[in-house]
TrEMBL record:
<dbReference type="InterPro" id="IPR010918">
    <property type="entry name" value="PurM-like_C_dom"/>
</dbReference>
<feature type="domain" description="PurM-like C-terminal">
    <location>
        <begin position="175"/>
        <end position="337"/>
    </location>
</feature>
<keyword id="KW-0436">Ligase</keyword>
<dbReference type="InterPro" id="IPR036676">
    <property type="entry name" value="PurM-like_C_sf"/>
</dbReference>
<keyword id="KW-0067">ATP-binding</keyword>
<dbReference type="Pfam" id="PF00586">
    <property type="entry name" value="AIRS"/>
</dbReference>
<dbReference type="GO" id="GO:0004641">
    <property type="term" value="F:phosphoribosylformylglycinamidine cyclo-ligase activity"/>
</dbReference>
<dbReference type="GO" id="GO:0006189">
    <property type="term" value="P:'de novo' IMP biosynthetic process"/>
</dbReference>
<keyword id="KW-0963">Cytoplasm</keyword>
<dbReference type="InterPro" id="IPR004733">
    <property type="entry name" value="PurM_cligase"/>
</dbReference>
<dbReference type="GO" id="GO:0046084">
    <property type="term" value="P:adenine biosynthetic process"/>
</dbReference>
<keyword id="KW-0658">Purine biosynthesis</keyword>
<feature type="domain" description="PurM-like N-terminal">
    <location>
        <begin position="56"/>
        <end position="162"/>
    </location>
</feature>
<dbReference type="InterPro" id="IPR036921">
    <property type="entry name" value="PurM-like_N_sf"/>
</dbReference>
<dbReference type="GO" id="GO:0005524">
    <property type="term" value="F:ATP binding"/>
</dbReference>
<comment type="similarity">
    <text>Belongs to the AIR synthase family.</text>
</comment>
<comment type="pathway">
    <text>Purine metabolism; IMP biosynthesis via de novo pathway; 5-amino-1-(5-phospho-D-ribosyl)imidazole from N(2)-formyl-N(1)-(5-phospho-D-ribosyl)glycinamide: step 2/2.</text>
</comment>
Length: 343
């Protein structure tokens, strides 16, 4: 009996159709340094762009979207999680002061549905354009029998560059610095395993419309991650006072901010400096989640933090406001042991 790759569950034609559908959207993320590879086996980037640097350091990061992809699958909305992926990968690069240059993606699925794949990759390309990076390549892998026909996962890797003497980090932080918070757009891409647990063990449903929200819970949960990279680089270039950044991802606000502190400095944060968005309170109440667990799982409305010199804090707030990023003074640094706590 003869058989075929298609009989085994792999549809090559569907994959080719997906590539055709995504081409125009991917092209929008192109940078001038991108060089076409006629074979399509590799993404090419003209490294002569680094000649303007005295000592260029390449930065790299890789990440995924986590179990948020399950909610996207359940709701049939696929064009937002690409922004989540870009935020997780390229904003990590910008934390050290690196300019994101390019990114590649990887999608594993049980069955290639061209329109779904094109929506996912299109969202990644749009996110790259927002971050100022190029999407130079990727891979879509069909895994029949390993994943269900509607199941998929997405991951990516990015590369950036920073001048060696402009590298940001804990060694620049001083006592008396100001901690500036940048608002998140929602939960971003961390904590969704707990979200799914709450949904499975409470009366909350994705189509519910809590009074505190102006749309369904599912739509609120799929709000794409805010992409900060260009705003972060603008802060560095235009204020001259950025010491360090902290991307508030898995582990919550205090744990992530502590990673950006030297061993001689603490950060003291004020809970009364911001109002936690209602979505988090909905989840806390319906899931009976202790505050300590909320603190270490979710961003609670703070997606990115900048530690800045005190004489540049006002300029930082003005610049972020001009760029449409809600921000506020979250706290300050004091002498300590490298920990972060609430006042």
């Amino acid at each position: 009996m003869s058989t075929s790759y298609e009989a085994a569950g792999v549809d090559i034609a569907a994959g080719e159709r997906a590539v055709e559908l995504m081409k125009a959207r991917v092209a929008r993320s192109r940078r001038p340094e991108v060089v076409d590879d006629a074979s399509g086996f590799a993404g090419l980037f003209d490294a002569s762009a680094f000649l303007r640097y005295r000592r260029p350091l390449l930065a790299t990061s890789t990440d995924g979207v986590g179990t948020k992809v399950d909610l996207a699958r359940r709701l049939g909305i696929y064009d937002t999680i690409g922004h989540d992926l870009v935020g997780m990968v390229l904003d990590d690069l910008a934390v050290c002061g690196a300019e994101p240059l390019f990114m590649t993606d990887y999608i594993a699925c049980g069955k290639v549905v061209p329109e779904r794949i094109a929506d996912i990759v299109g969202g990644i390309a749009e996110g790259c354009a927002l971050a100022g990076a190029a999407l130079v390549g990727g891979e879509t892998a069909e895994h029949p029998g390993l994943l269900g026909e509607d199941e998929f996962d997405v991951a990516g890797a990015g590369t950036g560059v920073v001048e060696a003497d402009a590298l940001l980090g804990p060694d620049r932080v001083r006592t008396g610095d100001v901690v500036v918070a940048m608002a998140s757009s929602g939960i971003h891409s961390n904590g969704y395993s707990l979200v799914r647990h709450i949904l499975a063990h409470s009366d909350l449903t994705l189509d519910a419309r809590p009074d505190e929200l102006d749309r369904t819970l599912g739509e609120e949960l799929l709000t794409p991650t805010r992409i900060y990279a260009r705003d972060m680089l603008a802060l560095v270039a235009e204020t001259g006072g950025v010491r360090a950044f902290s991307h508030i991802t898995g582990g919550g606000l205090a744990n992530n901010l502590a990673r950006s502190l030297p061993g001689t400095v603490d950060a003291v944060l004020r809970r009364d400096s911001w109002t936690v968005p209602p979505l988090f309170e909905i989840l806390r109440a319906h899931g009976d989640v202790p505050q300590a667990e909320m603190d270490k799982t979710f961003n609670l409305g703070v997606g990115m933090v900048a530690i800045v010199a005190p004489d540049t804090a006002d300029a930082a707030l003005r610049l972020l406001a001009d760029r449409g990023v809600p921000s506020w003074i979250l706290g300050e640094t004091t002498a300590g042991t490298g920990t972060c706590a609430y006042a």
